[in-house]
Amino acid sequence: MLSLLPLRLPSPIASTLPSAASLLPGLARIPNLRIPPRASMSAAAASTPEAATSPAVGEEARKEAEDVVVQYVVLRRDLADAWPMGSVVAQGCHAAVAAVWAHRDHPDTAAYCAPDNLDRMHKVTLEVKGETQLKNLAEKLEAAGVRHKLWIEQPENIPTCIATAPCPKSQVASFFRKLKLCK
Question: What is the pTM of this model?
Fold first, then answer.
């Protein structure tokens, strides 16, 4: 599928301007590329003959999945019910970017943001009931030395979410096991 949006200016000067096609002849028509779907992660797809004959392969894949570098984002459910969805999403984005920036020199963050990993980042978005649970989680992460950012919306001074810095899943997953996926 090819697409080209026309340039429409509401001015008589528009007729004297060169067209976009003449300015950028090689880029005048840009095809919409289809991205192939991700491979299925179902049990049926995992039950290949190789996996059935080699239990070590399954164990190795499980360990690799546990050590994937991941960023957790935890939002408040009470805010998601009261605020516009875009505002809640923005809070998570603020926290995620702040956590990455604050720990940009850490090797895990560098690996997470490496050019060859940009299309394979892993984030897990979870929810807590309210402010008390969010603050309790922040205290547990702080006590354990887990790199994170508690985002506090200003000027209202409202704790809205937590984002961890990118880190191996095996090191931090235990803090988030009891939390629900954000819906």
Answer: 0.67
